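Memo to structure team: turn this sequence into structure tokens by end of day. - J.P.
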Amino acid sequence: MSLQPVLIGGQWRPAQSSGSFTAEYPTTGERLPDEFPVSAWADCDAVLNAATQAAAALRQVAPEQIANFLTRFAERIEARKTELVEMAHAETALPKAPRLVEVELPRTTNQLRQAAAAVLEGSWALPTIDTKLNIRSTLAPLGPVLIFGPNNFPFAFNGIAGGDFAAAIAAGNPVIAKAHPCHPNTSRLLAEEAIGAVRESGLPPATVQMIYHLAPEDGLRLVADPRLGAVGFTGSRAAGLKLKTVADVVGKPFYAELSSLNPIVILPGALVERGEKLVEEFSGSCLMAAGQFCTSPGLTILFAGEAAEKFIAGVKAKLESATPGTLLSSGVARNLAASVKALQSAGAELVTGGSALAGNKFANTLLRVSGAQFLASPETLQTEAFGNASLVVMARDAGEAEKILARLEGNLTGGIYSDTNGSDDALYEKFAPLLRARVGRLLNDKMPTGVAVSAAMNHGGPFPATGHPGFTAVGIPASLRRFGALHCYDNVRPARLPAALQNRNPNGKMWRLIDGHWSQGDVVV
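Reply from structure team:
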């Protein structure tokens, strides 16, 4: 069987490979027919050289051209929707409807179009002008961006089409995509449409490139290479930290989403007021897509008592009556089993589930632990169990709950449920500041699962949720700024300035900070 080609320098070509791999049908564990290369360093060297040339050429490209590419790519994805959905379903077992066809694919094309609009408008780059000192600055492309896509979002976070991709391209950078081995054919189809849109838009051929897999040592070498401007990574904490360590040594911007438990605090009044409703919300959130969301509620804090016991009993019944979903791969199933075992070894008691099932499934799982036990082993009891498993921590009282919150690691999200008659307000005021410091997005009376593509969204958070608390992977225009370098011009002649910093506003829409005031007007000399 011949290996699928890689996309390098605008052309599909045979890989310089050190091995090969195949994906699997998650539902059966059988191998899919296509074989894909594990690229050797020669491929990495080639994509870096091509991306370096593309980066230089892109600096001369008009914003309209980049926006046209993003728009055409969205249109081409939509034109191939049926084939893409079928392939993603086969490789991930995610439901075709509503998940892939009605939710994730439209989200992906929406992100691309939002990025195109941001390029045309231009304010994302924060152009700033000081007329008195004649100093001007703006964000500009920083160079080739390497993007590692995750296994759980074959479209919306894919390295060749997802949010990081859209942001990096919109900021004017070429992208080197590293496909995820769980859905290589889906990535191949997306890459075919991406390179088609590159050609239609007249962008440099190496604006988008893709390789499928790498030996670990080549991945580390690639991240450290000086030809690379930045890295976007969504994946496991273990793999991400290895790459981040290398990036940090060489000073490489490394934007990573690594691990998150998304803690939920349910206050006593809320449990009494609407306990049955909260059982429904919590169970649904835990089981959505078999718990394979980075924002799934992995840790919940309750106050010990009758209402909490009733809640746990209700969740147990819901989990036991629901059919476990298919996990994304056999690797996910193995890791989930290992994580549940680690939680149990630290003192967590199994309420229900805890066992692997046939067909890449895992029994819907709930564990519980006392507040004292959690405080004795906070690191192990914050092991991320990626999948349909969640841990409940039973706090003895408010003082113990405060100590638990103080020991939480950084997370993407976290929320507090309180009652509507005010009996929980004092506890909320005590707990919210503690939780606020440990999450990127704070929720009230809402489960964390799901991330809206909104300009106000923060899909980031303190380490280890992400590698940097000041940036978001979702939310345009803010997500673009991760892939920009701040360029300052001091007493540079007017004709030599970038268009965004010249006296005339280049499009009349761009917001610029001129002498301390935001304006869409021209600089008055």
